[in-house]
Amino acid sequence: MGRYVIRRLLQMVPVFLGTTFLIFAMVHVLGDPVAAMFGDRTPDPATAAAIRHDLGLDLPLWQQYLNYLGDIVQGDFGKAFNGQPVTELMGTAFPVTLKLTLVAIVFEAVIGVALGMISGLRPGGFADNGALAFTLLIISVPTFVTGYLLQYLLGVKWGVINVSVSSETGIGELLIPGLVVAGVSLAYVTRLTRTSVAENMRTDYLRTAVAKGLPRRRVVGVHLMRNSLIPVVTFVGADIGSLMAGAIITERIFNIHGVGFQLYNGVLRQNVQTVVGFVTVLVLVFLLANLLVDLLYAVLDPRIRYA
Amino acid sequence: MRGAKSAKWVAAAIVVATAATACGSSDDSSGSGGGGGGNVVRASWADPQNPLEPANTNEVQGGKVLDMIFEGLKVYNPKTGAAEDAMAESIDSKDQQNFTIKVKDGYKFSDGTAVTAKSYVDAWNYGALVTNKQNSSYFFSDIKGYDEVHPADETSKPSAKTMSGLKLVDDSTFTVALKTKASTWPERLGYKAFAPLPEMFFTDHAAYLAKPVGNGPYKVDSYTKGTGLKLSVNENYGGESKPANDGVELKVYTDNNTAYNDLQAGNIDLVDDIPAAQLGNAESDLQGRFINQPAGIIQTVSFPLYKGEWNKPGMEKVRQGLSMAIDREAITKQIFQGSRTPASDLTSPAIGVDGGFKEGLAGDTVKYDPAKAKALITEGGGIPGGKFTISSNADTGSHKDWIDAVCNSINKTMGDNVCTANMVGTFGDFRNQVVNEKIDGLFRTGWQMDYPLIENFITPLYTTNGSSNDAKYSNPKVDQLVAQANAEPDTKKAISLFQDAERQVIADMPIIPLWYQNGTAGYSDRVENVQLNPFSVPVFTDITVK
Hints:
The complex is a heterodimer. By secondary structure, chain A is mainly α.
């Protein structure tokens, strides 16, 4: 198992190199960012050339990439256009987004699994149909609609929550944004849990467990849950990565200055350093989340072993 | 037990994961430090694009802060736009080319150091030197010796560090020698690129960037990049515009819809960029606490005069015809909800009649008249190639909507599909194509004034080799009128000469004037006396808090 983890960690090196280069090249293809810094005004060629030279944009792409990699190894992710080091931006943005993601994950895991269990234990019942309708509704309404709607009703109309999240970003303020982020995934978790619970209810080992007179709590809580949660864990694990990157819309609506905000600014201003730096870290998060999911399988299902 | 052993590895992987993602998580706690008093105006803001250096700020968000923390030799009257002496005791010239500037004594920066003539000379030399990469350095290009510190050729190095045209006489006096005569030059000195800079700007630049120091009505208390900026009253300020409140708190919003919602919920006092979708109902939502007035911005569409087919004799008729084929009234109402005003000259109402604005100067050439438009286009030889595109960038400002509307109006006039939109992915790419003359059809251009004077709307845009003459328009008659206007000591006569040049440009129609952009703002019932200056920036010093 130890060797397996090390091998997986080593596999990340080529993936890391490949993704950074791809993103680097893609942002590069967007064109020369210097002209945009002057607004509608024609840039004065001498100043533009000086800025280009300063950012290393006058070098060929491969050389720019190598320089960038060399800097990253030394912990230098470059600078954003306003002169702030990208590592500083990451230092403020990632904790904020991490908090939001955790709130969202807790929502989707707790509510999603609970709803899924309730409907899965009595398929076709009232609760099952109710959950089906509820999840359908959530999946079909886009995130920005739920976001703006909740913000307007709870924030502007009734004044229950703050319209925008303050710079301290307390957990309490993140509850509603977290719910909005979790929305669609929550619905999927419900569906997944329901299907897998309903399926496992009909399995032999569960019938055996009931037959040997185990209390219902143990049958459901240990035998049924543990097996039914495997697909759910896969989904939630993979979702950590996409939630961190995909909260751009929600972060904008609630004015949360996290990863989405920085990425959006970086893309808009074509700042290679910001975009590549943030995406690189996100790629790492994805890879590690996947590794965790794979390892969790072994915990949940003793039949799975890694060598 | 197998499970427990696996769990150990899960834990180990989590440690690696958190260690990897937390790299560079250095917490800087510069967010603390509050302003005094409770009457603080809370306003929306967006992250400025460049560091807050006066000669390196060319957009409104950074300019907003510079307006509060700096006061130059002149200031522009928020109502009329007229340039009035502020830090300048006097600005004299006998020949409109050599100026003697006397600085008022006894003024200080917020760090306690004195504002002297040297503060200006050093600041201007810094702004002009090419190696400092200040993107407003062209402001100093009229001063003698600019070409030595800022060679036009991108490969050559500067041969001097300071401009020969700037001379320090004593602590409160300096002289400026210009390359050519420019009677209206002193009027430009209200622009923040000409602001004085404290000694520490040059000695400890990093400290300046972290917490800018200026000589304006407010001083910076704390600046957390990407989050906000807190300003309080500068006790060292001795000028005329003393703040009527205790300070200003600027809060960064990513989405102006959120800022607008926060305004409605009463969490913020001032939003100076009302989202387009809300313009229709802002008046009633905010119960009249809504401002919608012309800003110093004119939107235009330029012809590619660098292409022979658009520049042949007779084509001016086609260009004028296309201008008359656009129904500006309908488009500004339907697409922009009245937040644009159809243009009738090449300047902006924001500069006022004294600044050179003349309503109706463009006459019939900007009036919607399909029959005449079609006749003119046919008379001029028709549209080159039978059809054309209007290009713009797609990433900001929903330009496609109005370009489609403009094309629609032209197509209806011509009774044929001659005009289509051509959207370029990013603003940077679009501007590159424009600058490098890569665009074959028409393209969007706009001009946001630097100072409220007709000169700023004509010289950079329509003189031969003008710094932002994207259409590559050239007419010796215009050049000559502009030179004459610059040499004219009497401002009134100078303005009328600029207007003559403007008439000639309209006759040639290298660009189609579309509309003046309005500045919008909404405010809460907690504040009063909110107004926008000609640059669409709120006049913070006048705002009172109830």
